[in-house]
Design a protein that fits this description.
membrane; protein transport; 41 helices
Amino acid sequence: MRTLAGVEDEDKWLAEGIAGIQHNAFFMHRALDANNLREVLKYSALMLSELRTSKLSPQKYYDLYMRAFDQLRQLEIFFKDESRHGLPVVDLYELVQHAGNILPRMYLLCTVGSVYIKSKQAPSKDVLKDLVEMCRGVQHPIRGLFLRSYLAQVSRDKLPEIGSDYEGDANTVMDAVEFVLQNFTEMNKLWVRIQHQGPGTVREKQEKERNELRDLVGKNLHVLGQIEGVDLEMYKETVLPRVLEQVVNCKDKLAQYYLMECIIQVFPDEYHLQTLETLLAACTQLMPTVDTKIVLTQLMDRLSNYAASSPDVLHEFLQVEAFAKLSNAIGKVIDTQLEMPIVGAMTLFVSLLTFTLRVHPDRLDYVDQVLGACVVKLSSVPKLEDARAMKQVVALLSAPLEKYSDIVTALTLSNYPRVMDHLDDGTNKVMAMLIIQSIMKTDSCISTADKVEVLFELIKGLIKDLDETNAEELDEEDFQEEQNSVARLIHMLDNEEPEEMLKIICVVRRHLMTGGPRRLPFTVPPLVFSAVRLVRQLESQGGDIAGEDSATPRKIFQILNQTIEVLTSVPCPELALRLYLQCAEAASDCDLEPVAYEFFTQAFMLYEEEIADSKAQVTAIHLIVGTLQRINVFGVENRDTLTHKATGYSARLLKKPDQCRAVYACSHLFWVDDPDGIKDGERVLLCLRRALRIANAAQQMASATRGSSGPVTLFVEILNKYIYFFEKGNPHITPSDIQSLIELINNEMQSDNGNTTIHSDPFFTSTLRYIKFIKQKGGLMGEKYDPIKL
């Protein structure tokens, strides 16, 4: 039993051991030079006796062992040369067995045994069997481990495998396998026994030291994996059962985990696939404290890579029913290991799903089965709070999205939304964003109402308002990014069949209406434009389609009216007004005058009742005027009503400059530059004159309040309108009108500057330059400008 001591004591004992080896090695080398066999055996035995110490930790003992190992290599060279020691190798093999102590005797016997096998004077299997049996005489765990490690090392190149020099009638591959298996079994027993050395108070230190020695045991499995001639049949019938028997029976957490890891890594993937049932059965028999999920994950990764290596091997997976066996094994492990945390179970499901997607991507039923098993496990937990487990669930849900380029495939998985239901609000949003990003990345088009229903159920975390407390904590930038993503998603929903597209719009609308006041301003506009696009599609196909359930422009406009009306209660009147005007223009294109008039009515009501901000009013009136100017569906009465309203509101804006610009913008309502457009030159002139009066009043107010009339920009803008309508052929706009306005602007500029410098306004200068250019250009237009004097 190794006594407990400090690091300083161990260093001292190690130094003493090394000194002893060096001292005896010196005399051994002197005897080697003299070819004195008796002295060589004497001092080599004394040198190897230093390895009998029990005072050193495994790491220190390894340092001592390596010093002795270097000397043993020199000794082996001496034993090979019979001319130097004068004894046949058979006699030498007998002679070294007379060494006084068993540990030096066994090291010498292994060294001579290596030479004996190489001489081929006896079948290698007999010598190997003799050595592996006699090594049982050393039962101290650390000393025995290093002795058997030495035996494995000196015999590695002397195994009777196929193609080796030692293969023959008396020697077979099975003999080599039997030797390695027997040595492995004994080494594993010694390794496991180390934990029982010393008091239990230093168990953690002992486990660490045992972990450092694991490679000595694992090398045997590595050798087994490299022996030429171990075919699938031998592996299935002999190698794997013997190894797994030792793994299961040792009942040691560290040994079971490490040896299962070795088995998976050192043997071929094809062998794993053909012996999958046996391997998985062993996994379910491991100690509950063994981290089985890592073992199974490594196995599935190996098999997945094997499947990806060549399409020709995929039929093998179907033949052995790999998915069913893995699924059953994982279910048993999760059910039996009651202490396994939820993150462990989720990790196993992620690995199984990854395996399924790589090996059986076409079997959606397998994918759904994995998700279903995940739902069952999650349902057994009151609430999923483990962040690591949540991360694994996200990985589970992300895997189908990454595998299938078409998101529609994932939407057919019935258990997918059931898994998402177990996520918390924050993670649910993260997953919903991943789904939307996947759709954008693959440019997928969701084309049926049923699939849209499933999709919006999946992303409901982004669509519905959170609790008030959570809503306040939400970062505004993140919130906007989420809602913009939903808006982009709505544009990806499309179907060439109008009836199905209308169903999609209704499904989306039903979900979006639950969004609350913060979300609607982001999500309603894309829905409106999607519906307007459908209206224009119907119009291009010939208008209304018969049938009560058919998609018709009138029906769609009714839905749009109800949808936009919700925005007014948010409140978000400016956005609602813009959308009403868009719908009015679409109704005009469909030649639906009453519908277009109703949308304009709603827009004017919003302007009157909801929009109070002066800047918003200016923007709104220009939008109304611009839209009304483009619409040609109205009859005389309706158009007069709407234009009268627009010009009236324009003249009642708060600021005089805003009034002026809105009024001269209204002039375009009476002159539409289309063959069939209205051309009322008289009313155009009235608007421009009214704008001129307002501009004049603005100049006077500026002069009264600031002492100067200020810039003449408004007059120049009105001048440009005169020039526009003059060139368009309005008979009521004459050269004299333009001439008078130019003179007015010059006078205003002179009075403001107090001198005779004119044309200091760049806009006015550019306007005059344009008139001059047209005059010089000549032609009909040039002649029209001739009366104007600059």
